[in-house]
Each structure stands twice: as structure tokens, then as C-alpha cells.
Write a structure and sequence with these properties.
6-stranded parallel β-sheet, single chain, 15% strand, 6-stranded mixed β-sheet, P-loop_NTPase, binds adenosine-5'-triphosphate, alpha/beta
Length: 761
């Protein structure tokens, strides 16, 4: 055995001992959590005092959460070690663990003490002499990578055990599984800056394809939850992605980091009860996303607050109740002046109108009595009646209540100031040429909006529904009373919770930070709902932090909706302006963010591409310089195994030749995954050539919109000219398509290759 092999064997042996011991600590922690859970359940169901119940619930859910977390970190529990010049070693892992003496044995990757593992460089080692990556298979240490910052500072023994292969490159060479994995072991310094950036304010992460924007944003979510758990568990974290396929692709990253309480959604799903299933054409998308749609909707609501053409006349039991036109106008203006949402202002309007109708009823009654000409002997009874002015407040209230029960009165109110739901307002608006014409501000091409009344909702409609909900408001007085009562209850719950923490000693174990968090979790006693569940179901939920991925695709109207979800304006905005595919999307970050944040946002740039090898990136750079010359392509971190190529294939032979080509490519990537990216128009036809597959299937056929944010070992781009021509952003679409591959790229074309791909000719 050479000295070096000897050193490696020794190092593996040493690390194995540490790692086995750490797994043992993990098992002990799990057993303890399980035992506590069993014990809590054994104490019975809903019997006992309220305090006992709260105590049981608190312990049970907390231990269950802890167990989930402990189970999630089984794979790759410990992945790194840093050594300082004093001979001190620190192990870094997915979770923090302590030894029997309560001394720290494994440091959570998010803790400040772990930071040096990610940021130390040869020029600025920050006191480290070595950084070591540990590669585990199950619980076995199978490999070690060392980076030495100070050879002199290391002991003789350690110098012998030095091992080196860049951990990052090893991670990047791994075949894709169809799901994004976490990268805790290999976070790069520029990504670490993004991940650990403060919670306050908005952080924009701009970077080319494959620069790790998504992965960094997700690790940032885990970091923020760890660092600000009290705030964020209470308010929740929302991740907004471009489509449900993408959400499935990234769905395992946070659970693998032990974080399960994050709400993930798309713009099309952000209005509870509505699922956007259709897509808008580029022109309609631009108009729907235009910020002037907010004015149009506000005007559409005003148009639903009508005054009758002449006087308001309601026929009731043979009486004609007449409210003069001017009175109706005055009532409407008074109700508008309170500046409440439509449905709330309606209450005021109806109350006032009913009073006027009650007076009108009295007048009508009086007139009818006069007509009958009551002649009585007693002279004082022959005085003209004045029923209207005889009505006092109580009479008016009673009369109003009675009138509100009359269908004729309801009908009249429905005509003048109807109660509206967002869906009704938007559906009726978008299918009425006359209303659109009347409500649209100058210069907005409202004709693009026209559609059938029962047309399915699109993702572009969802921000309109949300805007409408704001303008209409809901009558939430009952909910507010309940909330006030719940607030009183909360104080009581907190007291119980604090007692629980003290009594059980759980607080000392550092599992809970705050009694109010615990109390809030139990305010929903019996429903079993978590913060994430409650937040996802509530349109008006105010999140503690929002992460928007592929943020360049969002329209100004979608931004208005997102900003409503995060009043504290604590956001991570992740995207690439060079990949904007939606005609309604962003051209600059300032243009979409300044209206909400007035320049109060900071930007980090990621410049290194971890996905696409140099050879493929050269092709992508040609596309970028033709269609978005102001944008810089990122620099690839590695060389590829194969030159990208173009294959000519007549459309008539696609059915036969494409599966053949895909088969060859699949054979090249072995266990890896392959994505076929097509123009929208070819998607159905090409999909039909392959067994239907989701992300885990070896072959997936996608449009560019669906492929956004995803990656595959091999990519076959079909009909690049079709992609270029399918929308005003076709150039950006082609850039997205050719940057999805981690190893191999093939472009299939029928006619001449578009000039931007001439490198492949
Ligand atoms: N530090 C890292 N260690 C290991 N792998 C990494 C690292 N950073 C990024 N990667 C890998 O690079 C690939 C691209 O990352 P990601 O999808 O986050 O990029 P992106 O910038 O969001 O790309 P796009 O703009 O195309 O959506 C992923 O497979 C990711 O796991």
C-alpha cells in the first residue's frame, strides 16, 4: 500500500467512527421522541382538564414534528468538517446534535458556526486550515474530498490523510433523477451570500440558466425558517413557482432539509377555489397583465353602482313607492364617499335606501288614504295626515326590516347596487363588450379581453379575481367578531402554553422558542390544521416571507397580487431577465418592483452555470446575443462529454425517426433522464410518440413553458424555428430550451437551421 492509500484508509476509518457515533446520537434522539409520543398518546384522548389537553396536544404535535425532522435527515446526516489552526474540528450536518454532556457534536448547516464551511476560500480561509467533504452511502463513509488552506498549519498525521477531488464537480456529474435534490454539502460562496441574506426587505437574485437560483432560494427558505423560526412558523413562508410540474420537481428539496411547513403554489392557484386550466394568447396576456387593468376593474365596480334613469319606483301591495332620482344619486355618492369596498359600502347604501323607501311607503299610504277622502265628524281628525314626518328612528328601522324582506325591494337593490363575487364581476365584465368599452382606460386594448361568459379561467385571470376581491371586499363583520373573541382566547391559550413549557421542561430542550407560537398552533384545536394549511386556504393571509421563482414571468397585475400576500415586503425574487417568455413579463426588475418597493430592493447576481457544460453553453450564448444582447450568459463550470449536434428530420418521418434518436440518446445517458422540448403546436403530436410520462419517467415531452426551470441529462429540441416563431419572445424561449441539458443536446429540424444555431450546422 502506498503512503497515500494508507492515509486515505486511515482517514476513512476515522471519519467512519465519527459518523457512526453521530448516527447513534440520531437514533437516540429518535427513540426519545418516539417514546415521548407514545407516552403522550397513552395518557388518553380528550379527557381531563383543558390545561391537560393543551399540554398533551402541544407535546404530541411537537414531538411528531421533531420525528419528521429527524427522519428527514437520515440521508447524508453529516457531510462536512472544518479544521482550524488550533487543532479544533467541527462537523457540519443537516441538523444540530449534542453529545451526552450537551456539548455540540454536529452543527446545523444553517448555524453561524457552519458558515465558514461555505465561504472559506484559498485567499480568505477565515482561520481554517482545511475543509473536508464527506461522501456517505447510507451510513457508510465512502469518500472524502479535502481542500487545504494552510498545509503548514496541519499536523503531520493530517497531511498524510489528505484526499482531494472537487466535491462540487462530483455532485454535478451525478445523473439526474427527475427531482431536484438539496445541495447542502456543496453550496458555493456566492450562493451562500444569497441564502444567508437578512429577512428584511426584498432580495432579487438575477442569474442565467443553471446558476442555482432555484436551489439557492429553497435553501434560503430553510435558512430563514431556522434563523427566524418564531416569526416564520407563525406567518408562514410561501414559494410561488411557474407551474405545477416545476413545483413537483422542486417539491422534495425542503422536506429533505427537514422543513415541511412551506406553502408552494403557482400564480394560477392563488385564488382559493379557482384553478386556472386555460392559457391566454400573448396579446391577451399582455392586456390582462397591464397594471391599468386595476383601473378598469375599479371602474367596472363603479358601473355596478347605478342610479335609476328616472325616479326609483317600487310597486308593493298596490302602493307605488317612489324615491326621487336625485335622492338615489345622493345615496350612491354618499355610499361611495366612505371608500369602503363595494360589498361593504353596499350595507350603508341599502340601509339608507330602505329608510327612503320606508318614507316613500308612508307617503304613498298617506296619498291613498287621502284619495279615499276620510270624512269624519271630529274636525281635528280632518287635519291632513303627515305619516312621513311622524316616523321616528324606531319606526324607520322596523319598516326597513320589513321592506328588506320584500322580493320587489331586493330586486330593485340588486339592480342598483348588487352584492358581487369576484368571479361574477370578472366573468360578466370579460364577456360584455359594452362594459369593457365603457370601463377601459384610454389606450388599453380592451378588445383582447373579450371572451365567452363560461370560458375557463386562465392564469392571467387569477390576479384579476384577486384585484376584484379587494375592490369588492367581503362582508366580514361576523368573522371579525369571531377574531376578536379568538384574540381573547389566544391570551388565555398563551398562559396555558407557557405553563406547559415550564412544566414539561420542553423549553429547556430548546424545541420551542415562544409560547405564543405554541398557543396559536393550538388555537385551532381539533381541526389539526397547521399554519401552512390555514395560510393556503386564506386569500388574505399575510405571509412572513414570499419566494417567487421564475419571477421574470410575472405581469404587473400578478405582482400586485403577490405584494398583497406579504405586507412586510420580505421577499426573495428569483429569475433571469434573459429567459422572460411571457409577453406580459418583466424587462427590468425596477419596472416591476419599484411601484411596490420604491427602489428598496437589493440585487445579488449569480454568474456561474452549474448545469450546462461549456460546449452547449456556447450554442446558448449565440441565441442570447441575437435576442437579448444586453444580457450576459453565465460561465459554465465544467466541460461536457459530447458536442451538441443538429439532426435533420423530415416532418413526415418524425414518427419513425424521433423515437429512434431518443432511444440512442437515452442509451448514452444510462440511468439519466431525457427531455424532448417542442413548440406548442407540435406538443400533442410528439407526446403521442412516447409513453406518457411524468418527471420520473425516462422520457418527458414538454413545451418550453413546461420545461422552464427543469433540467435533464439529455435534451432533444424539436423544430427550433417553430419555437422562435411561436411568440414575440421566441428567442428567449429557444434560449430556455437549449439550456435544459446537463450533458447532451440534440436539435432536430426539418428545413434550414435558424442562423442563430449555425454553430451546429
Ligand atoms: N452548489 C451547488 N452544488 C451542487 N449542485 C448545484 C449547486 N448549485 C447549483 N447546482 C445544480 O445546478 C443545477 C441548476 O440549478 P437551478 O435549477 O437552481 O438553477 P437556476 O438558476 O434556477 O436555473 P434556471 O434559470 O434554468 O431555472 C441543479 O441541478 C442544481 O442542483
Amino acid at each position: 500500500m502506498t503512503n497515500r492509500q494508507d492515509g486515505l484508509a486511515q482517514a476513512l476509518d476515522t471519519e467512519q467512527r465519527t459518523v457512526s457515533w453521530l448516527y447513534n446520537r440520531l437514533d437516540v434522539a429518535r427513540d426519545r421522541a418516539q417514546a415521548t409520543l407514545r407516552e403522550v398518546y397513552a395518557r388518553g384522548g380528550t379527557s381531563g382538564t383543558r390545561q391537560a389537553m393543551v399540554e398533551r396536544e402541544a407535546l404530541a404535535s411537537e414531538q411528531a414534528r421533531r420525528l419528521t425532522q429527524l427522519n428527514a435527515v437520515e440521508r447524508g446526516l453529516c457531510f462536512g468538517r472544518i479544521d482550524d489552526g488550533e487543532g479544533q474540528s467541527t462537523y457540519i450536518g443537516r441538523i444540530g446534535l449534542r453529545d451526552e454532556q450537551h456539548e455540540s457534536a454536529l452543527i446545523d448547516w444553517r448555524a453561524p458556526a457552519a458558515r465558514q464551511f461555505y465561504v472559506a476560500t484559498a485567499t480568505d480561509p477565515g482561520g481554517l486550515v482545511r475543509r473536508r467533504h464527506l461522501h456517505l452511502k447510507d451510513r457508510l463513509v465512502v469518500g472524502i474530498d479535502d481542500e487545504v488552506f494552510d498545509l503548514e498549519g496541519m499536523s503531520e498525521g493530517d497531511r498524510h490523510s489528505l484526499v482531494g477531488e472537487a466535491a462540487l464537480l462530483a455532485a454535478l456529474r451525478r445523473g439526474r433523477t427527475g427531482r431536484m435534490g438539496d445541495v447542502v454539502a456543496t453550496i458555493q460562496t456566492e450562493q451562500d451570500r444569497v441564502i444567508r441574506s437578512g429577512l428584511q426587505g426584498a432580495l432579487v437574485v438575477q442569474g442565467g440558466p443553471g446558476t442555482g437560483k432555484t436551489v439557492a432560494a429553497l435553501h434560503r427558505a430553510a435558512y430563514l425558517l431556522y434563523t427566524h423560526r418564531a416569526t416564520l412558523e407563525r406567518r408562514g413562508v410561501l414559494v410561488v413557482g411557474p407551474n405545477s410540474m416545476f413545483l413537483r420537481y422542486i417539491g422534495q428539496v425542503l422536506p429533505a432539509l427537514g422543513e415541511t411547513q412551506v406553502v408552494m403554489t403557482t400564480v394560477g392557484e392563488m385564488f382559493p377555489g379557482v384553478r386556472a386550466v386555460a392559457a391566454d394568447g400573448p396579446s391577451a396576456a399582455v392586456v390582462k397583465g397591464d397594471v391599468r387593468m386595476a383601473e378598469l376593474l375599479a371602474e367596472a365596480v363603479r358601473l355596478r353602482q347605478r342610479a335609476p334613469d328616472g325616479d326609483l319606483v317600487v310597486e308593493l301591495d298596490g302602493l307605488r313607492l317612489r324615491v326621487p332620482h336625485e335622492t338615489c344619486v345622493r345615496l350612491r355618492e354618499r355610499a361611495r364617499a366612505v371608500r369602503l369596498p363595494h360589498n361593504m359600502a353596499r350595507k350603508l347604501y341599502v340601509t339608507e335606501l330602505l329608510k327612503d323607501l320606508a318614507k316613500a311607503e308612508a307617503r304613498a299610504l298617506e296619498e291613498s288614504l287621502h284619495i279615499e277622502e276620510l270624512v269624519v265628524d271630529e274636525p281635528e281628525l280632518n287635519e291632513p295626515l303627515d305619516l312621513e314626518s311622524d316616523l321616528d328612528e324606531l319606526d324607520l328601522r322596523l319598516a326597513s326590516q320589513r321592506l328588506w324582506g320584500e322580493p320587489e325591494v331586493r330586486l330593485a337593490v340588486e339592480e342598483l347596487w348588487p352584492e358581487l363575487t369576484p368571479r361574477r364581476l370578472v366573468a360578466e365584465l370579460l364577456s360584455s363588450q359594452a362594459t369593457l368599452w365603457e370601463a377601459a382606460p384610454m389606450g388599453l386594448d380592451w378588445r383582447e379581453l373579450l371572451r365567452e361568459p363560461d370560458a375557463p379561467w386562465t392564469a392571467g385571470d387569477v390576479p384579476l379575481l384577486d384585484e376584484a376581491a379587494e375592490l369588492l371586499g367581503e362582508d366580514d363583520s361576523a368573522r371579525r367578531v369571531a377574531a376578536r373573541e379568538a384574540g381573547e382566547e389566544q391570551a388565555e391559550q398563551e398562559l396555558y402554553a407557557r405553563e406547559v413549557l415550564d412544566a414539561t421542561g420542553v423549553a429547556e430542550q430548546g424545541i420551542f422558542e415562544r409560547a405564543d407560537v405554541l398557543a396559536e398552533r393550538h388555537a385551532d384545536e381539533g381541526s389539526g390544521l397547521t399554519t401552512a394549511d390555514r395560510a393556503a386556504a386564506d386569500r388574505t393571509w399575510a405571509y412572513g416571507h414570499v419566494i417567487v421563482d421564475e419571477a421574470q414571468e410575472l405581469s404587473p397585475m400578478a405582482w400586485r397580487m403577490i405584494m398583497r400576500r406579504v405586507p412586510a415586503k420580505s421577499l426573495t425574487v428569483v429569475g433571469d431577465l434573459a429567459q422572460t417568455g411571457s409577453a406580459a413579463g418583466a424587462r427590468t426588475w425596477g419596472e416591476v418592483l419599484d411601484p411596490h418597493l420604491e427602489g428598496r430592493w437589493r440585487e445579488e447576481r449569480l454568474l456561474v452555470n452549474y448545469r450546462t457544460p461549456v460546449e452547449i453553453m456556447r450554442v446558448a450564448a449565440d441565441v442570447l446575443s441575437a435576442y437579448a444582447p444586453e444580457q450576459e450568459p453565465p460561465e459554465s463550470v465544467r466541460e461536457g462529454e459530447a458536442e451538441p449536434r443538429a439532426v435533420r428530420m423530415p416532418a413526415s418521418e418524425l414518427a419513425e425517426l424521433l423515437p429512434e434518436l431518443v432511444g440512442q440518446e437515452l442509451a448514452e445517458v444510462g440511468e439519466g433522464r431525457l427531455g424532448v422540448v417542442t413548440p406548442d403546436a407540435l406538443h400533442a403530436q410528439v407526446s403521442g410518440l412516447f409513453p406518457r410520462g411524468d418527471l420520473d419517467a425516462p422520457v418527458v415531452v414538454l413545451t418550453v413553458v413546461q420545461a422552464k426551470g427543469l433540467e435533464f441529462d439529455a435534451v432533444v429540441v424539436v423544430d427550433p424555428s417553430g419555437i422562435l416563431g411561436q411568440s414575440p419572445m421566441g428567442g428567449q424561449d429557444l434560449y430556455v430550451a437549449v439550456t435544459r441539458a446537463t450533458r447532451r443536446l440534440t436539435v432536430v429540424h426539418e428545413g434550414d437551421l435558424p442562423p442563430v444555431l449555425s454553430r451546429l450546422a
